[in-house]
Protein backbone atom coordinates (compact mmCIF):
# COMPACT_ATOMS: atom_id res chain seq x y z
CA UNK A 1 0.00 0.00 0.00
CA UNK A 2 1.22 3.51 -0.78
CA UNK A 3 1.71 6.30 1.77
CA UNK A 4 -1.63 7.79 0.77
CA UNK A 5 -3.82 4.77 0.14
CA UNK A 6 -6.77 5.06 -2.17
CA UNK A 7 -10.27 4.29 -0.97
CA UNK A 8 -10.12 0.96 -2.85
CA UNK A 9 -6.86 0.06 -1.07
CA UNK A 10 -8.37 0.85 2.32
CA UNK A 11 -11.42 -1.31 1.61
CA UNK A 12 -9.15 -4.13 0.39
CA UNK A 13 -7.08 -3.83 3.57
CA UNK A 14 -10.26 -4.18 5.62
CA UNK A 15 -11.39 -7.17 3.53
CA UNK A 16 -7.99 -8.83 4.00
CA UNK A 17 -8.12 -8.18 7.76
CA UNK A 18 -11.55 -9.78 7.99
CA UNK A 19 -10.36 -12.82 6.03
CA UNK A 20 -7.29 -13.13 8.27
CA UNK A 21 -9.52 -13.02 11.35
CA UNK A 22 -11.92 -15.61 9.89
CA UNK A 23 -8.97 -17.88 9.08
CA UNK A 24 -7.55 -17.43 12.59
CA UNK A 25 -10.82 -18.36 14.26
CA UNK A 26 -11.45 -21.29 11.91
CA UNK A 27 -7.99 -22.59 12.78
CA UNK A 28 -8.63 -22.13 16.50
CA UNK A 29 -11.95 -23.95 16.14
CA UNK A 30 -10.21 -26.85 14.41
CA UNK A 31 -7.69 -27.08 17.27
CA UNK A 32 -10.17 -26.56 20.08
CA UNK A 33 -10.31 -29.36 22.61
CA UNK A 34 -13.90 -29.06 23.71
CA UNK A 35 -17.18 -28.55 21.84
CA UNK A 36 -17.91 -25.25 23.60
CA UNK A 37 -14.54 -23.77 22.61
CA UNK A 38 -14.98 -25.08 19.06
CA UNK A 39 -18.44 -23.50 18.78
CA UNK A 40 -17.16 -20.22 20.24
CA UNK A 41 -14.41 -19.89 17.64
CA UNK A 42 -16.66 -21.05 14.79
CA UNK A 43 -19.14 -18.32 15.75
CA UNK A 44 -16.37 -15.71 15.64
CA UNK A 45 -15.14 -17.01 12.26
CA UNK A 46 -18.65 -16.69 10.85
CA UNK A 47 -18.99 -13.14 12.18
CA UNK A 48 -15.73 -12.15 10.47
CA UNK A 49 -16.87 -13.78 7.22
CA UNK A 50 -20.03 -11.68 7.47
CA UNK A 51 -17.98 -8.50 7.81
CA UNK A 52 -15.91 -9.48 4.79
CA UNK A 53 -19.03 -10.09 2.71
CA UNK A 54 -20.49 -6.71 3.69
CA UNK A 55 -17.25 -4.99 2.75
CA UNK A 56 -17.03 -6.83 -0.56
CA UNK A 57 -20.60 -5.83 -1.40
CA UNK A 58 -20.12 -2.35 0.09
CA UNK A 59 -23.53 -2.72 1.63
CA UNK A 60 -23.89 0.84 2.89
CA UNK A 61 -27.57 0.26 3.66
CA UNK A 62 -26.56 -2.23 6.36
CA UNK A 63 -24.02 0.14 7.89
CA UNK A 64 -26.39 3.11 7.66
CA UNK A 65 -29.09 1.20 9.56
CA UNK A 66 -26.82 0.35 12.49
CA UNK A 67 -26.93 2.32 15.71
CA UNK A 68 -23.59 3.38 17.16
CA UNK A 69 -23.62 2.16 20.74
CA UNK A 70 -20.20 0.80 21.73
CA UNK A 71 -20.36 -2.28 23.93
CA UNK A 72 -18.97 -2.57 27.43
CA UNK A 73 -15.20 -3.00 27.53
CA UNK A 74 -13.95 -5.37 30.22
CA UNK A 75 -10.36 -4.36 29.33
CA UNK A 76 -9.03 -7.80 30.24
CA UNK A 77 -6.85 -8.01 27.14
CA UNK A 78 -5.69 -4.43 27.62
CA UNK A 79 -3.80 -5.24 30.79
CA UNK A 80 -2.48 -8.73 30.16
CA UNK A 81 0.87 -9.49 28.58
CA UNK A 82 0.87 -10.20 24.86
CA UNK A 83 1.17 -13.85 23.91
CA UNK A 84 2.38 -15.44 20.71
CA UNK A 85 0.04 -18.04 19.34
CA UNK A 86 1.90 -21.35 19.42
CA UNK A 87 0.61 -24.64 17.96
CA UNK A 88 0.25 -26.02 21.49
CA UNK A 89 -1.24 -22.84 22.99
CA UNK A 90 -3.62 -23.21 25.91
CA UNK A 91 -7.23 -22.12 25.67
CA UNK A 92 -6.30 -19.20 27.92
CA UNK A 93 -3.57 -18.08 25.51
CA UNK A 94 -5.81 -18.47 22.45
CA UNK A 95 -8.51 -16.36 24.07
CA UNK A 96 -6.03 -13.68 25.05
CA UNK A 97 -4.48 -13.65 21.58
CA UNK A 98 -7.93 -13.44 19.96
CA UNK A 99 -9.03 -10.60 22.26
CA UNK A 100 -5.90 -8.63 21.41
CA UNK A 101 -6.55 -9.20 17.68
CA UNK A 102 -10.09 -7.86 18.09
CA UNK A 103 -8.80 -4.86 20.01
CA UNK A 104 -6.36 -4.10 17.17
CA UNK A 105 -9.11 -4.48 14.57
CA UNK A 106 -11.41 -2.13 16.48
CA UNK A 107 -8.63 0.44 16.75
CA UNK A 108 -7.87 0.17 13.03
CA UNK A 109 -11.51 0.80 12.12
CA UNK A 110 -11.73 3.66 14.61
CA UNK A 111 -8.68 5.26 13.00
CA UNK A 112 -10.13 4.74 9.51
CA UNK A 113 -13.41 6.33 10.61
CA UNK A 114 -11.43 9.39 11.68
CA UNK A 115 -9.56 9.48 8.35
CA UNK A 116 -12.89 9.41 6.50
CA UNK A 117 -14.72 11.81 8.82
CA UNK A 118 -15.62 14.06 5.87
CA UNK A 119 -17.33 11.17 4.03
CA UNK A 120 -20.36 10.26 6.15
CA UNK A 121 -21.19 6.88 4.55
CA UNK A 122 -17.61 5.62 4.81
CA UNK A 123 -17.14 7.08 8.26
CA UNK A 124 -20.27 5.29 9.51
CA UNK A 125 -19.16 2.03 7.90
CA UNK A 126 -15.86 2.12 9.79
CA UNK A 127 -17.60 3.17 13.04
CA UNK A 128 -19.93 0.18 12.75
CA UNK A 129 -17.05 -2.17 12.01
CA UNK A 130 -15.12 -0.80 14.99
CA UNK A 131 -18.15 -1.35 17.20
CA UNK A 132 -18.62 -4.91 15.93
CA UNK A 133 -14.96 -5.74 16.54
CA UNK A 134 -15.26 -4.27 20.05
CA UNK A 135 -18.27 -6.53 20.54
CA UNK A 136 -16.19 -9.54 19.47
CA UNK A 137 -13.54 -8.52 21.99
CA UNK A 138 -16.22 -8.38 24.67
CA UNK A 139 -17.45 -11.90 23.75
CA UNK A 140 -13.91 -13.22 24.01
CA UNK A 141 -13.20 -11.40 27.27
CA UNK A 142 -16.41 -12.77 28.79
CA UNK A 143 -15.36 -16.26 27.77
CA UNK A 144 -11.93 -15.58 29.29
CA UNK A 145 -13.55 -14.32 32.49
CA UNK A 146 -15.80 -17.38 32.76
CA UNK A 147 -13.29 -20.07 31.74
CA UNK A 148 -9.98 -18.71 33.03
CA UNK A 149 -10.65 -16.38 35.95
CA UNK A 150 -13.51 -18.31 37.50
CA UNK A 151 -12.29 -21.83 36.75
CA UNK A 152 -8.57 -21.07 37.07
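^ C-alpha coordinates above, recovered residues below v
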Amino acid sequence: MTNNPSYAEVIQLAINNEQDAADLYAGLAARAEGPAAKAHFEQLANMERGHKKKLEMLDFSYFKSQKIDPPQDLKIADYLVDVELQPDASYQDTLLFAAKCEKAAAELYTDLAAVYSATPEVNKMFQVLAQEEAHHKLLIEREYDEKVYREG
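Residues 120-149 form the longest helix (30 residues).
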